[in-house]
Batch of 2 targets.
Target 1
Amino acid sequence: MKTEQRTAMRELGAIGSTFGPLWDTYFESAFYIHGHLCGGMPLGFRAGLAALKALGAERELDMAKLVFVETGTGHAAGCFADGVQMATGCTFGKGLMERTQYGKWALTLVDRATGKAVRVSVRPEVMQASFASPFVQQRKQGTAPSAIPVEVSRPLVEKQLARPNEDLFVISPVFDYPLPAKGKASFNLVLCSVCSEAVAENKARVRDGEAVCIPCSGYGG
Ligand SMILES: [Zn+2]
Ligand SMILES: [Zn+2]
């Protein structure tokens, strides 16, 4: 990572302290984990924060919330989803993020404990300005985001950070979103009788009376 990018990430991350205690650490980390400076990740981060605030909820430490992001893939601002993930704590690894292919900059955050949800979408004029920015123009020419000079990417982020939530997002009223009860998590593992790799017990298959992993079973997922 280039020094200028790192410095900008550290300085922009510090602005996260205005979101509340610890948020400068989360925000700065989000930049590093994402890998480059861009407008999409910070916008998703702010959208995730706005959703938490609207629900009166804290960043998810465990598995009690779920987020649906509508960004999809294959366009200029998929980075939004990384920001959502890192602000809400509803991560891919914890199985708390699902992505639809709508190609829209919106998320729905659901709290299992209360059965309540909120949808946050980016105002269309914000997306139009973002797509017209010099940053996206350079991306269109084929420049990798990390190769775009900080003088181009940083003002985009700073401009967004200076704007209040109302300018950036449409935030729905809180609505009911009951989720089906989750199946019990498995805390047991078995060894596949073919490849000997460890498999979560509830994902193993049985073939000829022996436990096997899905790839070795020949049965398909
Ligand atoms: Zn990005
Ligand atoms: Zn196997």
Target 2
Amino acid sequence: MQCDICGRESKLVDAIIEGSMVSVCNICAKYGQVITLEKPKIKEEKFVKVKSKSIQKNPEVIEVIVQDYADKIKNAREKLNLKQKELANSIAERESTIQNIESGHLKPSIETAKKIEQFLKIKLIEEYKEEKKLSNINFRDEKLTIGDLLKVKNE
Ligand SMILES: [Zn+2]
């Protein structure tokens, strides 16, 4: 490669000398303005697409044993002047089961709770209705602008 100004064989740089762009050697480059061409930074275009997920649930009824089941059962049973064993026999459960339930050590199953509810005429089960849940994650497009992609430093 030959310098446009002096004709010397050299490693050339692009420069603007007297208004025109030339390829010159390092020495001649001093007379002009060297153009620094920054390599365009081309970032990978990112398309972040999060598919919207629609989670639809049918209303579900969840049955939960009340927190104070132990006291409720004990109080109701005592009001009826029933012994634990009698209550146990009446609902086809073991006496130890009733003991554990009344002491709060054993949470009755829904099935057992329903039997106790009916027998003692108390409420042991709370129903929770799970409403339809719709969680939408919208599309998110992240597009980089051309300016972000191509940054050319012009001098
Ligand atoms: Zn030169």
